[in-house]
Specification:
- By secondary structure, the protein is an alpha+beta fold.
- It has 3 domains: 119-217, Roll (Nuclear Transport Factor 2, Chain: A); 220-328 and 470-493, Nuclear Transport Factor 2, Chain: A (Roll), CATH 3.10.450; 343-460, Glucose Permease (Domain IIA) (Distorted Sandwich).
- It has helices at 2-42, 54-80, 85-88, 142-148, 153-163, 237-243, 249-257, 264-267, 476-493; strands at 130-135, 178-183, 189-197, 200-206, 211-217, 220-230, 273-283, 286-300, 303-310, 318-320, 352-356, 359-365, 371-373, 378-386, 390-397, 401-411, 420-421, 426-430, 440-447.
- A hairpin with a 3-residue loop joins strand 14 and strand 15 (390-397).
- Helix 6 (237-243) crosses helix 7.
- The longest helix has 41 residues, at 2-42.
- The radius of gyration is 36 Å and the shape is globular.
Amino acid sequence: MATKSNRRVSGTRAGKRKKSRATPRKRSRNRANSRANSRAKTGSRRRRKPPVDPAERKIRNRILALMSLLVLVNAYVFIWQGDGLLDAVGNPRSTAIASGHGPLGTYADTPDHACGKQPVRMMGELDHLITLANDLDEDRTLRLALLELGLASSQIDAIEAAARPTIDLGLLAGSGAPLQVAIDRHGGIQALELQLVEGHLLQICNDGEGYTVRTLQHPASPEVATVSIELGAEVDLFAAVQAAGEQPELAQKIAETLAYDLDFATEARPGDRVAVLVEKRLLGQQFHRYGHILAIRYRGAAGRFGYYRYQPRGQKPAYYNSDGKPMRRGYRRTPIRFHRYPPSARALMEPTLEVVAGRVGLMFRQPEGAPIVALADGKVTSVEEHETAGLVVSIEHTDGMISSYSHLAQTLGGIDRGVLVRAGELVGLAGHSGQTPTDRVRIELHKAGEQTTSDPLMIRAHGARRPPRLGTNLGESQLADFRETIAPWKKLLR
């Protein structure tokens, strides 16, 4: 009995196992039959997706990962940090970039020392700083000349204290000595040079511990050089000038001379050519500085034009084209004095239109400390601090137009209400005062007595819309002398 019972149990288990093995097959056949019947009813077949290429799958996964990372970063900046867009809604405030953290960095950083390796070339070696100029004409003392440049009295005291053991400062008053000063973007005097007479220099420079005073005297000799320049792929005028065997400060003179027809920082292109006839000043056997550009010719993407320096009888020297027509226009093409900048940052410096509270302006991205100059001759009408626009200087020009320069870090050159300025003279330094996330200067133009802003792109216009030329054509009585003067210059430039 025991054996029979065991067999029954065993048979029962075996039957169950057999049944359990058969059930999945039946279910599978039923599902397959059901799908076949469904396809037969609908008359269509499900299309198979083509296999995904492994390289494509890899790219897709990378894009998804990058998008996820961007979402997390934006969430951190705009929500969790509490300093982003959501936090600013209904509570606008100034946004400042810490020194050295702007997209273009900073300009005119304070050097460790400013006396240079070659005393004769001291000012030339400081082309990374901001240069101011004045003279000691009309009983102007050294102190007064420095005060007119807007420099701090405490620094002038230190300059005078350092100079007194070397020279009687009272003898300098009214001497007519030209003065050059190099400052950093904080307004600190790093070096100055007075040309007492031709070939005799007085220099005062920051040696890292205080001011060093030295006098240099060498035989002075002038010469005239012809320089041919072609811009390379990076459109770096400084590099092109040095490749031609010249000193980098010539790049600044070239760009500033052409500023009424060309913004070298944004409008020049690879392959543009410049030919220059320039004065050079030597002390002994050493090059000291460049004098005037006598003639300049540009051939490039922005056009073709030539300037020739000439002094009509009873007038100041000016630049004319080969037909005796003045080359100076009502406005410069840029409010930025040409300076060193990373060539890779050129694309960031292209000016863009910007509308703020219904007012149209032209925004120039610049490194903090970049030198800002007057677009045209005029008189300063206001120097004010605004909550949104920051430090603003406004200048009324002779044509009745007012130009305003916003977001300045500080003013320079003794700029104050009522001061007369010339086109190209320093107004201040680019910064991020007011409400702005980047270092910049914003330009607005409007007619005096009107609140509506004018089109600021007029300074960048082409063709008939360009600002008019200033001055009068040379008369017949002087045209012959002018053409005779520039004839050899034209040959040299070719």
